[in-house]
Each structure stands twice: as structure tokens, then as C-alpha cells.
Automatic annotation (TrEMBL):
Residues 451-664 form the FtsK domain. PANTHER family: DNA TRANSLOCASE FTSK, SPORULATION PROTEIN RELATED. Keywords: ATP-binding, Cell cycle, Cell division, Cell membrane, Chromosome partition, DNA-binding, Membrane, Nucleotide-binding, Transmembrane, Transmembrane helix. Its main location: membrane. This is DNA translocase FtsK. It comes from Rheinheimera sp. BAL341. GO terms for biological process: cell division; chromosome segregation. Pfam families: FtsK_4TM, FtsK_alpha, FtsK_gamma, FtsK_SpoIIIE. It is found in: Cell membrane. ATP binds at residues 468-475.
């Protein structure tokens, strides 16, 4: 298929052709150099030129050999490399880091100087030129009087290695480690080869079991860094190593003209290694298995220096190479077709006695909006009522009427495109609007009807309600939001509490270092997790109040400033009875907490009213404390999305729903029933009553696996066991609740309740509840404590209890 190039791409390809041609010309001139040809350093008398590149080639080759000697033969390859880098990394050159550019130029000059000097001192001359050229002779002759031959060679070798490091960024320590590991495993394999060949004669020989038996168990193995096996021993998943890019490189990674050529590459390296395949490879090569990275990271944390390395890994963000590249095929929308459809819309409206004129057309990746100027006296409600009739007349799946377009006096008519585009997650993450957003809670939504990327800041929402039927793209949308947060934030910035009643959608994220606890699938644990969030919210508010700040951002800024000044702040809420410490702990940066609930309706059905109260309390107060909710449900009914929840979560996203009633339940207006599905959504931003139509970005399962595997390699999650324990504290109590773990005898009404029961000789929960005008739960705890103390018996077959203790003495 033919893809026309734009202006910049044409210039880049022309530049690549010019550089490649010049490099070949130089190589041809150098290889066919004849000293008898008239050239730069001498005058010849023969009329014919033997150099295949002609007089110009003879002149250039003579000049290069005169100055560089043997090193001149490397210059054509440097020219070709320069052209390739200009072609591949043009957009990176537009945002140059001048410090790195200066270091690379210094490295290039240093490499050429030392290489020519080494060549001048150690190789024979070429033709009548010095082996290192004039430059090599000058450098070597300047150093020899001071360092002699061996000292000069050693100094030049050090300078050559330094120049290569500055120019290319190569690490000689890594090279030495790789060579050493290859030699070690090679020698080990050769030494053990005769023994293994002899053992193969036995029928019961199992090489893998023998390797395991030979390994002596170690109680506390110390691994300073991951053991590297030779390349022959590597699984296929390491064939294409993924190098993390910086933010600016990632933002432009997919806009170079080599994208089409690279589409044939295999991205199997980003998948998780198959343990079975790895074991098979080890059995074939008879080598011991490589230590797991997770074990290595766990042991690294015990060492101070290695802990710095692990922290550095957690500070790096994943590379965009883990995601699929966007499709380069442009939506084939012909202006003539748009004009034809515009006239057709006007004609069909006229058939229904509605006079309107199309004054604007805005094609998008999925739908096209036609702006209509209605004739005087025509009501918008009449157009809205004709949406299904227009869809039938225009042979469209559905037609959505936009009654109000902010800033315009027109109405909108949105028709689906014949060919819809797929909006890739990498395409939106690579956009400048995502890159320039400074908030760590920036989430990707997709693209609007004009094709512009749409991102949202969860900190400004501050909570999000997502609803849509099965197959509408709701789960993919939630995955896109989570993956975009993983591309924007480190575990120090954002932590997740994920609740997945279906045990399918969010379990894929198990093990990433962002998790506060393992993915919750038991709804009783979900209630405990939300209760912990309430307690954490109250604790953060007390900390912010003690420091005199208004939100989490101000708190972190004050803590960071105190640490930078060398005067870290101490925890003002610490009490000596809290732990065994003598002094209060120091305050550290607090990450934002994002609570993701994939199927909210199931949790409401199982746990009920208590969860609704916990969510309402978090939604009311948790914004300043940095705790945010993302609630998703496929059953947008009023018993699930209650008025209490809707009042505290104004930001909502509606995917395709089945009826206008469901649309009104989510958005307080209709329109979601006319969506197309597969990621088509209506986004109601905070502070606005007009929803925006957005086509959600798409992320495939293997992309999510790749991002999760990349984060797992950096470190293990630091789970907080108190989240799921269900411990009730003073901070996370709901209004009217008492602590579940309190002893009933500590209740101030306990003695009065005992006196009432023993005097009346009637032990019933309802009687205690009516007598003291308390709640049922509190009355039941009082009666249960009396049973535990032996005052009353257990309930009989009819539910009655017998009072065992005598009444108290009169006057007591």
C-alpha cells in the first residue's frame, strides 16, 4: 500500500540518501586510491585518473589519508551512522540537550585523536603517508618525550576508552561483566562436559535434577546484582531489550518516518518470559537456572548501596516501546462525501418539515459532527425527537443530537463514520498534552470528535463514576486509565487499592509496586479496605492540620523543604504507646491513593448500606487528603448509583447504555443510549453540565501484561496488612458506630443494662434497645456480653433467654 510522505519526511529521506551516497563515495575513493593520481598533496603528470571516484575522489582520499592515516577508512562509516541517526532520531534533535551534545562532540574529537596516535605508533605506514596521519604524528610526538612508549600507549588507550564512553554512552563495566560471565559459564561448561557425557550413558540420567542436587542450599544468599548469563543462554524474550526513554523522546517516539518500516519487528520481548520454556532451555544447555529478579531485589533492599539502585529503578517510567504503535492509515474521508451528506441531512430534515442549514462539518476518528443552523421558530426538542427517524433515513446506526454547543448558536448532529479508527493508548500518551501535564494523576481518556487527544486530571475531578453496558468498552477504559497512571507516576507518587468482584479485570495488576495490598476479590475485605481509607483520610487531615497546610500537595512540599534544609519534621501524632520507639518517626512524602472498584453493583449487593456510607464519606472529604475514587458499574440503576453517591461524585463517564433512563441516571440527561459502543463515551467534566463525546483509547491485553511485567521487574509491592484486617479505630468509625472490638463492659450503659435485666427478669435485645433508646447493634453487644459473663443464658429454641444472676441489692 502506498503512503505519501509529508514535507519533513521527504527531507529526512533525501538526507538519508545524501549521507549514504557520500559515505559510499568516500569508501570507494579510499579503496581505489592510487598514489600516482594527481591529488591534494602532490601534482601528477598522468592524464588518466585510476581512482574510481574520479579527480574529486582522488583529492578527498589523499587529504583524508594525509591527516588520519589508517583511521580514514573509518570515516565513511561515521558519515553513514550520522545519516542514519539523523533519519531515525530527527525529532530528538529538535529538542537537543546541549550538555549531552557537547560531551558527544568532545568524545568524538578525543576518540579520533587517540586512535590516530595509537595507529601512528603501532602500525606500518600506508603508501607514503604515516599510519596515523599528520594528526597522529603530532599527538604521539608530543607525548613520547614525557611518558615513553609504554606510558604513552597506556595513556592513549585510556583516552580512547574515555572518548568512546563520552561519544556513545557505552559502559565498560557492563562490557567487562558480560565478558566475565561468558568466560565463567564457558569454562564451567567445558570442565563439566566430560562428566556429563559419561553420565548420559545412564538411562535414569536427569540433567536438570542433577544440577539441582549439586547446588548446596544457602540460608541467606547475598546477590549484589542480577547474575547475567551468556547470550546463548538467554530466553527469546530477551532478544530485544527495552531501553527506557526520557519523557521528550517518548512523546515523539512514534512520529518518525521509520514507523512503517519497523512495523514488521517482533515485540515478543515485552512479554513475560515463559517459565516452562526457560526451564527447557536450561535442560538443553545443562546450566543452572538464573536467579529470579524478584529475589534479587528483595535482597538488594538489605544493602544501603543496592537500595539506591532499586530506588532508581522505581523512579524510571516505562518505555512507550511496550505499547503497540498507532495505525498510520488516515481515515479516508472525502470532502465531496461530506458535502453530499450535508445536503442529504438538510433534505431529510426538510422531509419532516424542519428547515435547517449545515454550516459546519467536523470529521473525527469515529463520528462526524454536522452543525445545523435552525430556521427561526424551530425548537431543538423537535430535532431531538426525530433522532431515530433521521438514523433510519440516513441508514446510520444511530444519530445523536447535541442540543447545546458551548459558544455557538448552532446545534450538532453526530453521525457515525463508515470507517472508524482505532485510537491507540500509545498515540495519546505520546501527545504533548499528556507529556506537558505536571499532575501525577493525569489519565488518558481518548480523542474527541475533532481528533484531539483528551486527558483528565483525577486530582481535579476528584472522583470518577464510570457506567456502561457489557461490551461498551467500560473495562478497557478503566485499564487505559490505570495504564496511563502507570506511565505518569511512580509508587512514590500514586498507590492503588483495587477491588475486583469479578476476579478477572484487575487481577492482571497483581504484584506491581504501586499496590497498597493485593487485589481485593472478597467483598468483606473490600469493606475493610474502604474503612482503612477512611482512617487514613482522617490521619492525613490531622497531619495537615498540625503542619498548617490545606492539601496533600502543600504537605509534601513542606516535608520536602524540611528534608532539603536538613531539618526533617517529626510526626506530631506519635504517642509513646504506639510502638517501641523512643523518639517520634520522621515525616515522609505521602503518595496519592486511587481506589479502583471495577464492579460497584456487586459490592453494593453483597455488603450493602455500609459500603455506600464509606464511599460517601470518602467522596465528601478525601479530595484534600489525596484519596480518589474510580467507580465502575455495568448496571446504572438508582439502587446502585444512589443520590448520595451522585451528589458527591460530579465527574462521570457514560459508555453505551440500553435506555434513556440509564443515561439520565448517570449523566442526568439522555444521550448515552445513542452511543456506538466499543469505547464511545460521553465525558461529563467537573463543573460542567454539557458532556463531551470522546472515543476511548484502546489497550490490548498483551500491552497491559508488558507494562505490568516491566514494573514487576523494578521491585515488589510493599503491602500494608492492616488494610484487609478490618481493624476498627476511632478515625474510621461511621456516625453512630462504636468500635467492634470494644469490651461490652466498657460501655457506660453496661451496669444500667445489667440492673434492668436482672430486675425485670427479661433478657431481650429489643427490651434493652427500647429502655435506653440505643441502636440495635449496641443493645445486642450488651446482651452478648451479659451472656459471656454468665448473667443471662444463651437463646433457647424460641429465642428467649433465662436470667441467671439475681437482682442487685436495693440501694446499690
Amino acid at each position: 500500500m502506498y503512503f505519501p510522505l509529508n514535507g519533513v519526511q521527504r527531507l529526512l529521506e533525501v538526507g538519508l540518501i545524501v549521507f549514504s551516497g557520500f559515505a559510499l563515495f568516500l569508501l570507494l575513493a579510499l579503496l581505489s586510491f592510487d598514489p600516482a593520481d594527481p591529488s591534494w598533496s602532490q601534482t601528477g603528470y598522468q592524464t588518466s585518473i585510476n581512482n574510481y571516484a574520479g579527480p574529486v575522489g582522488a583529492w578527498l582520499a589523499d587529504a583524508l589519508l594525509f591527516y588520519f592515516g589508517w583511521i580514514a577508512y573509518l570515516l565513511p562509516f561515521l558519515v553513514a551512522l550520522a545519516g542514519y541517526l539523523l533519519f531515525k532520531r530527527f525529532h530528538d534533535l529538535m529538542t537537543l540537550d546541549y550538555l549531552i551534545l557537547g560531551l558527544r562532540l568532545i568524545g568524538l574529537v578525543l576518540t579520533l585523536l587517540t586512535a590516530t596516535a595509537i595507529s601512528s605508533m603501532n602500525f606500518n605506514d600506508i603508501f607514503y603517508f604515516s599510519s596515523g596521519g599528520v594528526i597522529g604524528d603530532v599527538v604521539s610526538s608530543s607525548l613520547l618525550p614525557y611518558f615513553n612508549f609504554i606510558g604513552t600507549v597506556l595513556l592513549l588507550l585510556c583516552g580512547f576508552a574515555t572518548g568512546l564512553t563520552l561519544m556513545t554512552g557505552i559502559s565498560w563495566l557492563t562490557v567487562a561483566d558480560a565478558i566475565g560471565a561468558a568466560c565463567f559459564f564457558g569454562v564451567q561448561y567445558i570442565v563439566s562436559l566430560p562428566q556429563r557425557l559419561n553420565a548420559r550413558n545412564n538411562d535414569d540420567y536427569d540433567p536438570f535434577a542433577e544440577d539441582l542436587a549439586e547446588q548446596e542450599p544457602q540460608d541467606n544468599p547475598v546477590i549484589t546484582q542480577p547474575l547475567k548469563a551468556p547470550q546463548l543462554n538467554r530466553p527469546q524474550s530477551d532478544a530485544l531489550p527495552i531501553t527506557p526513554l526520557n519523557a521528550k523522546t517518548e512523546a515523539k517516539a512514534f512520529y518518525s518516518v521509520d514507523t512503517l518500516a519497523d512495523d514488521q519487528l517482533s515485540f515478543s520481548a515485552i512479554d513475560e518470559p515463559d517459565p516452562s520454556g526457560w526451564s527447557d532451555t536450561l535442560q538443553q544447555l545443562d546450566l543452572p537456572p538464573e536467579p529470579e529478579i524478584e529475589t534479587t531485589l528483595a535482597q538488594l533492599t538489605d544493602d544501603e548501596d543496592d537500595g539506591v539502585e532499586v530506588s532508581h529503578l522505581l523512579e524510571e517510567l516505562p518505555s512507550l516501546a511496550l505499547l503497540d504503535r498507532p495505525d498510520k492509515a488516515v481515515n479516508p474521508i472525502d470532502p465531496a462525501d461530506l458535502e453530499r451528506v450535508s445536503r442529504l441531512v438538510e433534505a431529510k430534515l426538510l422531509d419532516f418539515n424542519v428547515e435547517a442549514k449545515v454550516v459546519g462539518v467536523h470529521p473525527g476518528p469515529v463520528v462526524t459532527r454536522f452543525e445545523l443552523d435552525l430556521a427561526p421558530g424551530v425548537k431543538v426538542s423537535k430535532i431531538t425527537g426525530l433522532s431515530k427517524d433521521l438514523a433510519r433515513s440516513l441508514s446510520a446506526i444511530s444519530v445523536r443530537v447535541v442540543e447545546v454547543i458551548p459558544g455557538k448558536s448552532f446545534i450538532g448532529l453526530e453521525l457515525p463514520n463508515q470507517h472508524r479508527e482505532i485510537v491507540r493508548l500509545s498515540e495519546v500518551i505520546g501527545d504533548e498534552i499528556f507529556e506537558q501535564s505536571k499532575s501525577p494523576l493525569t489519565m488518558v481518556l481518548g480523542k474527541d470528535i475533532a481528533g484531539k487527544s483528551v486527558v483528565a486530571d483525577l486530582a481535579k475531578m476528584p472522583h470518577l463514576l464510570v457506567a456502561g453496558t457489557t461490551g461498551s468498552g467500560k473495562s478497557v477504559g478503566v485499564n487505559v486509565m490505570i495504564c496511563s497512571l502507570l506511565y505518569k507516576s511512580t509508587p512514590d507518587d500514586v498507590r492503588f487499592l483495587m477491588i475486583d468482584p469479578k476476579m478477572l479485570e484487575l487481577s492482571i495488576y497483581e504484584g506491581i509496586p504501586h499496590l497498597l495490598t493485593e487485589v481485593v476479590t472478597d467483598m468483606k475485605d473490600a469493606a475493610n479496605g474502604l474503612r482503612w481509607c477512611v482512617g487514613e483520610m482522617e490521619r492525613r487531615y490531622k497531619l495537615m492540620s498540625a503542619l498548617g497546610v490545606r492539601n496533600l500537595k502543600g504537605y509534601n512540599a513542606k516535608v520536602k523543604e524540611a528534608i532539603a534544609e536538613g531539618k526533617p519534621l517529626k510526626d506530631p501524632l506519635w504517642r509513646p504507646s504506639d510502638d517501641m520507639r523512643i523518639e517520634p518517626p520522621l515525616l515522609e512524602k505521602l503518595p496519592a491513593i486511587v481506589v479502583v472498584i471495577d464492579e460497584f453493583a456487586d459490592m453494593m449487593m453483597i455488603v450493602g448500606k455500609k459500603v455506600e456510607e464509606l464511599i460517601a464519606r470518602i467522596a465528601q472529604k478525601a479530595r484534600a487528603a489525596g484519596i480518589h475514587l474510580i467507580l465502575a458499574t455495568q448496571r446504572p440503576s438508582v439502587d446502585v448509583i444512589t443520590g448520595l453517591i451522585k451528589a458527591n461524585i460530579p465527574t462521570r463517564i457514560a459508555f453505551q447504555v440500553s435506555s434513556k433512563i440509564d443515561s439520565r441516571t448517570i449523566l442526568d440527561q439522555q444521550g448515552a443510549e445513542s452511543l456506538l459502543g466499543q469505547g464511545d463515551m460521553l465525558y461529563l467534566p467537573p463543573g460542567s453540565g454539557v458532556p463531551n463525546r470522546v472515543h476511548g483509547a484502546f489497550v490490548d491485553d498483551h500491552e497491559v501484561h508488558a507494562v505490568v511485567a516491566d514494573w514487576k521487574k523494578r521491585g515488589r509491592p510493599n503491602y500494608i496488612p492492616e488494610i484487609l484486617s478490618g481493624e476498627t479505630t476511632e478515625e474510621n468509625l461511621l456516625p453512630g458506630e462504636t468500635m467492634e472490638g470494644d469490651d461490652g463492659e466498657a460501655d457506660p450503659l453496661y451496669d444500667q443494662a445489667v440492673a434492668f435485666v436482672t430486675e425485670s427478669r427479661r433478657a431481650s435485645v429489643s427490651g434493652v434497645q427500647r429502655k435506653f433508646r440505643i441502636g440495635y447493634n449496641r443493645a445486642a453487644r450488651l446482651v452478648e456480653q451479659m451472656e459471656h459473663s454468665g448473667i443471662v443464658s444463651g437463646p433457647g429454641h424460641n429465642g428467649n433467654r433465662e436470667v441467671m444472676a439475681p437482682p442487685p441489692p436495693k440501694g446499690y
